[in-house]
Amino acid sequence: MKISLTRRYKFAASHRLHSPNLGAEENRRVYGKCNNPYGHGHNYIVEVTMAGPVDSATGMITSLGDLDPFVQSEVIEAFDHKYLNEEIQEFQALVPTTENVCREIYRRLKKYPSARLQRVRIEETLKNSFEYDEALS
Amino acid sequence: MIRITRKVEFSAAHFYHNPDLSADENRRVFGNCNNPHGHGHNYVLEVTIAGEPDPTTGMVLDLKELKDILQREIVDRMDHRHLNYEVPELAGKIPTCENIAAVIWQLLEPKITSGKLDRVRLYESPDLFADCVADTNGIERRA
What we know:
The complex is a heterodimer.
Chain A lengths: L1 E14 L8 H8 L8 E12 L2 E2 L8 H16 L2 E2 H4 L10 H12 L6 E8 L5 E5 L4
Parallel strand pairs in A: 1-4
Antiparallel strand pairs in A: 1-2, 2-5, 5-6
Chain B lengths: L1 E13 L8 H8 L8 E13 L11 H16 L2 E2 H4 L10 H12 L7 E10 L2 E6 L7 E2 L1
Parallel strand pairs in B: 1-3
Antiparallel strand pairs in B: 1-2, 2-4, 4-5
């Protein structure tokens, strides 16, 4: 069998879906109320899945004492209570859909040194979730 | 192929301590989980079976039968127990979420007679869980 460990984190942020490559009317048609120029926000839940061998000395894939501060500094501090379009550099030229947020968080967590990042799954609302995993990257 | 999942809960105590490490090192590695008096969780176990529904019954595996297997093999063994002392399958292992999930996999796999064990997901809390899934290469272990 293969074992993985998943930890859930939360951040709250605002965004606006708008593509500079589309006209105003087209943006409204494609993104609907998410195109509102004032932006809107969500309580995002981020599930981070780490895989890899279980260390025989600790019984763990990775210590939460290492993982929590890493996710905190790489993702939560950068994203929490921010306007994603303007305050995250990567989204100045990329629409911050949750697909793209998922991929950006995966990119940031991929460099975690103590275990292998397997999947990032984001719940944008209770009804929407998005996943990006190593098979897709 | 269809996957069916059954959920059960059990409550148990544990603590983390590796006798090969010094007291200081144990405290550094395991933090408050190293408290020798132990602490506990309400574990939530989700077990997924994959297979084709039987043409006569329309079932992959009778959920009542799965419920009985989970009760007998897991809940009776682990509920209201101290995992460090009272579960022989965990003897010599640190009872982390990863190791408990692996033991649950090993206990259940031979008992599933219809369909195949597809995933064992063990929640230690709503924000932390371990998954075991099938792998032909065996268990990954770091020396």
